């Protein structure tokens, strides 16, 4: 039977610090209901004791007395435990299985007895069972701390972990979804190593609100970032040798052309080379490879990169040798596996690539090297301009 905690503070017998009762484990053998060492010192002592025990790879004894049935049995009747000095668990396999069966039956039947009240290990107060969270592993069916102390404990633990993980580099940040500037505490820590400020791009409220994500996409379009994406696709097409890109909508092309000259977006249904403004297209869009479309927007063969969105207009990454191999053999594998999913198709292509001899890989490796060299030359030329 557990003794009630009669003190609010106690001195640890090891570190000699006066600590609150919540920093000590319960003990039914002491008058005050608490152990003589605090949790930290007891944990260090236990860790040192466990570390001092060498790992036993093979049983050190031929027979052992079971702690459950008290019978002497051979080492084969016990499960291995490398942390014990004899390399065996304290109970035999039969007693261990019986104990687990009783535990499962008790959980399935719901026969666990729940105490009507309990003394919290955190605040030391005796509270009704409703103030505790259920715990099927405990004898009384309740956790050791009440709900309030548990919430405070995990809040402090989360704050310590947040500070130790990576402190934010800024005190405030503008949310990319709602556009409001908020303190750093309103953002979650970023798990992306490339984050410069150590915070997520959206605040906690917007990350839970799907309508805020739609507003973010709308602002991106208004700010011209979506137009920059269309121009990036044009640059990649020009680098690949494609003169006219019919896949891009004329509306996006018109908006990109007007953005380059600093005017308002042109109407997709208007006629004439200058859109609604009547201005001629800029020289960067009227090169020798330009062709006029039905709505008067020139098709771009080698568009100039706008200086306002340099990051969005980066050339496409060169394809690897494996990607070139997939392009060449994907149709064949798809014909052999018509009902295969995308994941199964990728696994089949990976298996073929691994089984491919080195001599047959050479053409794909050479092609990938040529693409990397061409991309490096294009980047050097763009930097020189």
Automatic annotation (TrEMBL):
SUPFAM superfamilies per the UniProt record, alphabetical: HMG-box (SSF47095)
Cross-referenced Pfam families: HMG_box
DNA-binding region, residues: 315-373
UniProt-recorded name of the protein: HMG box domain-containing protein
Disordered as annotated region, ranges: 265-292
SMART domains: HMG (SM00398)
Annotated HMG box domain residues: 315-373
Record organism: Elliptochloris bilobata
Superkingdom of this protein's organism: Eukaryota
Any one annotated GO CC term: nucleus
Keywords: DNA-binding, Nucleus
């Amino acid at each position: 039977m557990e003794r009630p905690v009669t003190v609010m503070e106690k001195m640890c017998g090891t570190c000699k610090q006066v600590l609150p009762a919540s920093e000590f484990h319960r003990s039914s053998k002491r008058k005050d209901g608490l152990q003589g060492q605090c949790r930290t010192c007891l944990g260090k002592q236990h860790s040192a004791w466990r570390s001092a025990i060498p790992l036993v790879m093979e049983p050190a004894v031929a027979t052992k007395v079971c702690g459950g049935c008290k019978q002497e049995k051979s080492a084969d009747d016990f499960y291995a435990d490398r942390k014990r000095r004899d390399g065996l668990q304290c109970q035999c396999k039969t007693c261990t299985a019986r104990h687990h069966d009783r535990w499962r039956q008790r959980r399935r039947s719901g026969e666990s007895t729940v105490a009507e009240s309990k003394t919290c290990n955190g605040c030391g107060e005796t509270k009704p069972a409703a103030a505790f969270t259920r715990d099927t592993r405990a004898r009384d069916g309740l956790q050791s701390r009440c709900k309030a102390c548990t919430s405070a404990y995990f809040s402090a633990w989360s704050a310590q972990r947040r500070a130790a993980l990576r402190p934010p580099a800024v005190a405030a940040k503008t949310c990319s979804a709602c556009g409001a500037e908020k303190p750093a505490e309103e953002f979650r820590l970023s798990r992306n190593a490339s984050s410069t400020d150590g915070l997520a791009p959206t605040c906690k409220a917007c990350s839970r609100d799907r309508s805020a994500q739609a507003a973010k996409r709308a602002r991106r379009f208004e700010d011209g970032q979506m137009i920059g994406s269309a121009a990036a696709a044009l640059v990649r097409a020009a680098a690949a040798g494609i003169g006219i890109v019919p896949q891009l909508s004329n509306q996006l092309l018109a908006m990109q052309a007007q953005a380059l000259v600093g005017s308002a977006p042109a109407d997709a249904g208007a006629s004439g080379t200058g859109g609604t403004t009547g201005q001629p297209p800029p020289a960067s869009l009227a090169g020798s490879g330009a062709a006029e479309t039905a709505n008067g927007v020139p098709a771009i063969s080698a568009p100039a990169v706008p200086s306002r969105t340099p990051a969005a207009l980066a050339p496409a990454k060169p394809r690897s040798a494996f990607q070139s191999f997939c392009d060449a053999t994907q149709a064949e594998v798809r014909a052999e596996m018509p009902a295969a999913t995308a994941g199964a198709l990728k696994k089949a292509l990976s298996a073929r690539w691994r089984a491919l001899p080195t001599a047959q890989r050479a053409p794909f490796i050479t092609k990938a090297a040529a693409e990397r060299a061409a991309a490096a030359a294009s980047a050097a030329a763009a930097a020189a301009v």
